[in-house]
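As a warm-up, study this chain.
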Amino acid sequence: MGVYTLLFFEFFKIGLFAVGGGLVTVPFLFDLSTRYPWFDSEQLVNMIAVSESSPGPLGVNMATYAGFKTAGVFGALTATAGLVLPSLIIIIIIAALLDKFRQTDVFQHLMYAVRPAVIALIVNAGIELGVLTLTNTASAVLCIIFWGAVHYFKQHPIWYIIAGGILGILFEL
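Now compare it with the structure written out below.
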């Protein structure tokens, strides 16, 4: 199987299960980092940082970055198309069927059942990122300070991203 076919197939699978947003893709990307030489876990952490601080959805940014790192511009297009296509297909199907099934008990139960699974995937991604990034006292202290600032000051997230970037440069983290 060629690299483009493999990129498309792997990111298509991720796109099928990326219910709940871009952070849900992180555990799948960690799995890719162990199965393919496309990127390692340290590079994945950097991809997440770049994706989080770039405009656009996290999952799409990460697919584009991983595809580009693996196979250049065409790899970026391939991985991004693979990630987005399942959502497009599912949205078209849901739009066609939503009015018919929206009020059914089965649909309501399905939506309630998916929520805990999404939360579990996001928590798992947070723990994995914490293990990879909180490798020294300075980064752990900054994490605690930013966590407190986010909850206490309630500023726009871009300010925390900018501050984190500046502090990372200053402290060479």
